[in-house]
Amino acid sequence: MTYLKRVKPIPVVILFVLHVMSIFFGLAGLLVMSPHPELYSGIPWLASLYPSAMLHGAELQMILGAATMFAFGVYTIGPWKTGVFFAIGTILPLGAELMGTGTGWPFGGYGYEGLLGAKLGGRVPYSVPLSWFYMGFASYLLAIAIVGAGKIRGRSVLTLLLGGWLLVAWDLVLDPAMASPNMHIHFWDWHVNGVYFGMPLRNLVGWFGTGLVFMTLSRLLWFVDADARRIPAWLPFGMYLANTVWAMSLSLSVGLWQTAVAAIVFGLLPASLVWRRHRTGSGSGEQQPGFAVESPLSPSRVSGPSLGR
Description:
Layout: H1 3-6, H2 10-33, H3 44-76, H4 79-103, E1 110-112, E2 119-120, E3 124-125, H5 127-147, H6 155-179, E4 188-190, H7 201-222, H8 234-253, H9 257-271, H10 276-280, H11 299-302
Antiparallel strand pairs: 1-4, 2-3
């Protein structure tokens, strides 16, 4: 195990802990405080703090998530690759969300409430593209670590497909909770009643397509793929786990245990394959056909992309 994998950078750890804390307090507000105002109405300072916390808590959660994954990316795969993924992983989903909230394509008809921050174009909260970035980045880094640990031909394509799959698996449990009429607070509302627990199936197709496109474009502009051996599993898996548990908690609170099971089977279990690498070793380091691997000191890591393959 390399020094990089053994040592967890303090700023990344702090950001991740703050992100998890924001998830915990957000769940407490949504699932405990919101349906039971008597718990805080008699406490003046808490009664005055609660509305502001509910108004800004979710966007803070997304900001911290994006900051955590960005810092982790710079630390492990370098500023160029991280910056490229951040730019494409926010701009392209923003375009898809603006189109979706305006036309219903590709996700289905829906609209955002006012709990996720200022809206871009009057329709999409600025924090939403940040969530696309950090969960998309976590999913893709997990896919790189999982697929890159084995000797598989065509690993780049398989990595992209797995990354898109993990991203969609998160939505298997997230959107049904928002579609449920039993949810006390909605971050967005569906204008259609879909067959998957109130969510249209086209939303899953839209999620997979959007995720696959921005992951693919990012990979193309990376020129060489990230080295799976340089990606410690703890952070992308921890990020994926924390946010999936958050969405599962929301679904379970409205009685949707089926979607929670789906998230475990189709999301958490495949993501947990990343730990296989630690049992079987980090891989031989042998470069596979169609999968270029940069060294930690390659020009692409230090100053920008390299065209070499």
